[in-house]
Description:
The chain is mainly β. It has one helix at residues 6-26; strands at 31-40, 45-51, 54-60, 66-74, 80-87, 90-97, 106-115, 119-124, 128-132, 138-143, 147-191, 194-244, 251-263, 271-276, 280-283, 286-288, 292-294, 301-314.
Amino acid sequence: MRIINVNHKVKSLGLLLGLLIFFSSCEGELEVVQSIDEEFSGIERIEINSEFMEVNYEGKSAQTAVELDGLLESSRSGNFKIEYSKEGNTLFIELDKNGMLGGGNHRALINLVGPKNLELNINSGSGKTVVSGIEFPNLDINSGSGNIQVFMVKSPSINLEVGSGSIEGYNLLGNVDAEAGSGKVEIDQMEGNLDIEASSGSISVRRLSGKLNVDMSSGNLDMGDVSEIESLKVSSGNISGSGVGLGPKTRLVTSSGRIDIQTFSNLKAYNYDFEAGSGKVVVGQSSSSGSLKIDNGAANTIAGSVSSGWIEIKN
């Protein structure tokens, strides 16, 4: 005959219920666990590892010192801490996790105001990163699954990378390399060459004075007022553009989808060589259900291909 220890089971259930109540209470309202108000002089570089922390940097012309304001809120104090230190001319900032205990709700934010001419490198996990007013030879921002916003930046080399999230750029002067695993890329009012690589999502490019190159696995590319397109490649999706300029290196490729280009360029200034597996190609008044070759006696040839879909270039 099996004897069940009822008291032991009741105690176990009570202990489990108590733990559930304890951990549930830890998920409650956020409390301020850290507040930062600091100022640093002689800073020429800032390195940030922000995890889920939101980061804002604003460069100002008359600013010489770096002002740091920060706030950390948590339903479990002691889990995280904003660490910062100055080593030489470099300011290091990171969101540090204390111990292995997870759970709880957390929110962290830092606001930085400093010089325009400053090197800034940001590695973010899932937080939002906003940068404006930088004027430096290079700017590097990397995010795992967050949002990157860059405004009014002048830099010969701007590198923006996000795993799954979004990249937004406005009023940029310099060459930009943008890479997105999956998500959204929006660039508006930029002077310089723009290279975009994306696995899936949507890309929008507006008012670009420079050359555009895009390599995308699946999704849609929409363009408006782009001075010159070079290589545009979408494995599965659509490419559309109005007010777009052609150039000697223009190449248009899609495996399955549609390419519609309205250009201000003179169509007779180029030769054309397009291949369509099971689709249609239209250039100006010429069209073909298969390959389309046009010899205008020009020095450069615009080429491309579509496996199943449509390519159209018109004025």
